[in-house]
Amino acid sequence: MPLSNIFNLSLETGSVPSKLKVSRTVPIFKAGSTDNLCNYRPISCLPVISKIIKKLVCPRLYLYLTVNNLFYNFQFGFQAGKSIVHPVVHILQTITKATAKN
Length: 102
Description:
single chain; alpha+beta; 2 domains; two-stranded antiparallel sheet; 2 strands; flat
């Protein structure tokens, strides 16, 4: 079955083939003692095809959420054109308004 058929079927049905959902988690050493489990971080290795499906779905989902105004008003992360500056400005404005009102 060509990959385009898998991708189209996945988008049409809203499901992903079960073989694409399997990931392998590998512990990666950070620093310090190799005997301490806290010095390792888990890395999930996903199938390449599932990453491609994610690349196809994410823009469509983002567009749907944006067009239908479904994002929370104060959702600043993971949105184009918004950064850490936006919540800081929002909090400063809130504090300024509260101070002005006593």
